[in-house]
Amino acid sequence: MKKNIIVLFAASLLLYASAQTVVIPDADFKAYLVTSFDTDGNGEISAAEAQAVRKIEYTDRPLQSLSGIEAFTALEELDCSYANPFERGGLTQIDVSQNPSLKVLRCDNNSLEQIDVSHNAALRELHCRNNKLSALDVSGRKELEELLCDNNRLKHLQTADCPSLSLMNCSMNQLEALDLQGCPSLRWLNCAENQLATLDASPAVGLEQLYCNDNRLASLDVLRNGALRQLYCGHNRLDSIDLSRNTALNDLDCGNNRLTRLDVSQNAALTELECSINRLAELDVTHNPELKQLYCNAIPTLTAIRLIKDQAYRTLSYQTASVTTYRVDRETAVAEVARLAEPSHPEVADVDVKNLPDFAQAAPVRSMSTAAPETKEEKAQPATHTRTAREIFFDEEYRREEARKAEEAKRVAEESRRASIRSYNGIVSVPDAEFKMFLVQSFDTDGNGEISGAEARAVTSMDCSGLNLSSVEGLEYFTSLEELKCQDNRITTLDMSYFPALRSLDCARNKLHYLNVKANPKLVDLECSDNNLINLDVSRNPALRTLGCNSIRLIRLDVTKNPELEALKCGNNHLAELNIANNRRLDTLNCSKNKLKLLTVSHLDGLNYLDCSGNQLTAIDVSRNKKLGTLDCGMNALSKVDVSKNLALADFACNGNLLDDLDVAINTELVSLNCANNRLTQLDVSRNAALKRLRCMGNRLTVVDVRKNLKLKFLESAPMPTLETLYCPQEVIYSKLAYPIMSKVVYK
Question: Which class for 715: exposed (0-12), middle (13-18), buried (19 or more C-beta within 10 A)?
Answer without folding.
Answer: buried
